[in-house]
Amino acid sequence: MMLTELRDRIAFVADPRVVLVFVLALGIGSEFASGSTVQLWSFVLINVLIAQSINLLTGVAGQISLGHAAFLGIGAYTSALLMKTWGVPLPVALVAATLLSAAAGWLLSFAAGRVREFYLAMMTLGFGMIFYELVREWTAVTGGVAGLSGVPAPSLKTLSLNGYAMGPVAYFQFMLAVTAVVMWQLRNFQTSTYGRAFFAIHASEVAAGSIGVARVGTKREAYTISAALTGLAGGFYAHLVGYLGPESFGLHRSVEALVMAVVGGLGSLSGPVLGAIVFTYLPEKLQFFADWQFMVYGLLLMVSFVLLPKGLAGLLLPRSRYIKASAQTGAQKLADKNSGIRSPAAPVTSETSGAALLVAKDIGLSFLGLRALDGVTLEIRPGQIIGLVGPNGSGKSTLVNVISGIYRPGAGTVTFDGKPISGLFDHEVARLGVLRTFQDPRLVPAFTVRENVLLGMHRLYRQGRVAAALNLPSAHREEAEMLERVNEALALAGLTALADMPVKDLPYGDQRMTELSRVLVADPRVVLLDEPAAGLSEGELVRLADVIRVLKGRGVSVVLIEHHMDFLDDLVDDVVVLDAGKMIYQGGMEGMYRNPAVIAAYLGREGRPEVTHA
């Protein structure tokens, strides 16, 4: 009870209006604080930006970095040299520091996109070590081991802004204003379709691609923004201390950034702030900390992983939201204004109503010499429901993977609406309207049902990244409209009462329906369902069938990989049977039950079985 009350109080403090009042109070209060206190507060702001950069990259997008000290150094030396050598104004120098660090992050992301996990950590660590040695050896530019002194700084009374000399207090207020704006933009971004795409990549890259999220481009974007934040922090740092040396950008700084974000709480906006405050004040108050720094960091990481897997934010703060509260209110107002349920945009059909919408022709694919698909041809007409059955290992999921762009066929072609798509990436296929589900629900565990379903509309958003970060009225209206349609899909799937429940806490059947709802809201033209009935109760099977019939009524083509024959009997228009990568039957369900090849390969006996499970 005490913890709940504490969370409620902190949640009130975290309200944007309260935060704004706090920022203003902090800016005014700095006028009356001691010089050492103002300097400590300035370091807190720098660490907040660094911790947020790690959180965005690792906690949100799921990418690892042990080389962020290099981005900090790039920003610091860029801003310092521009002001000291060429007299560039402070704002311009900081912008240049941010952009150059962002460019370095963008370049690093190309190499990072080719490796994962341990190798990704080692690669970024190598990047940090290369930068450290470069700073040590490039004496003509960085000053080498002797460092770069004389950087314009408030403490040296050499820093000015538009001719106005900036003291420590004025510099802190400037940093506070910039950091507050950056945090506001981060909040808007993380609760937009682009921020949710980062979370989708973190949870499952394949599932993210299936709803139209470009995995490579999204990871590249995460590295670029993360590096930009650290570069801005580096520019602030350079002018705060007035001196730069290579020791400031060693491995310990990268580790410190990671520890701040992890202990504070990855995945939330408030967690890195808590971590930055703790790890700014802790070394200051405990002087022995510097001598035992890595040991203390290691101990704190161990304690955090074991006792506080969600960090301080998970212990003290309520669950983070990934949809703007104002957009949800706007969605409710739209629902109240619109009587009845809005139908999604009418699907675009081929000129000839009976013509095939999607054709997979003579598809062949081998894995290490094993023939997974051998000359399979499948045609799907608008509004048609096709059952895809066969024994395990017959090539059903492989065929769906080829159609959806996860695999590229070794032979044959896939065309959609008369255009070839077999050479496209999975996210490009999804953006055309060909969407799929998986054998196991691949959702974002930390998201609620509503937030997971909203992910399905990623391909339909038209707002740009700038509009999302600034929360422009156009972006806000679009978000509200999308949420209204999400609410309609939740009602159709029977999930309205569970809409704000974290999906990880729900039973398997509700997770299945959540994944199907995510496809339903995306205005699909073809839906590929991989064993959607597996593990569902009788009541859930009825709900599933109702949703599939709604898709058919909208002109959407549906392909069902399924072993549950009773479920298919009254649902499908046609059935295709695969065995050992070859099509052995295509036609009605009744004919399948009497077909000798199907009986021998799959059914085991003639006639309609009661229930056949996977």
Bin the strand percentage.
5-15%
The radius of gyration is: 28 Å
The appropriate CATH architecture of the largest domain is Orthogonal Bundle
Q: Count up the domains.
A: 2
CATH class of the largest domain: Mainly Alpha
**How many extended strands?**
14
CATH topology-level name of the largest domain: ABC transporter involved in vitamin B12 uptake, BtuC
- The low-confidence parts are 340-352
Principal-axis shape: elongated
Main sheet strand line-up:
10-11-12-7-13-14
Termini gap: 46 Å
Q: Please estimate the helix content.
A: 55-70%
Mean pLDDT: 88
Describe the structure.
By secondary structure, this protein is of the alpha/beta class. The chain has 2 domains: 2-317, ABC transporter involved in vitamin B12 uptake, BtuC (Orthogonal Bundle); 358-449 and 504-603, 3-Layer(aba) Sandwich (Rossmann fold). The chain is 57% helix and 11% strand. It is built from 26 helices and 14 strands. The strands form 4 sheets. It has a 6-stranded mixed sheet, with helices on both faces. Strands 6-5-8-9 form a 4-stranded antiparallel sheet, covered by helices on one side. The chain has a two-stranded antiparallel sheet with strand order 1-4. The radius of gyration is 28 Å and the shape is elongated. The protein starts with a helix and ends in an 11-residue tail after the last helix. The model is unreliable at 340-352 (pLDDT under 50).
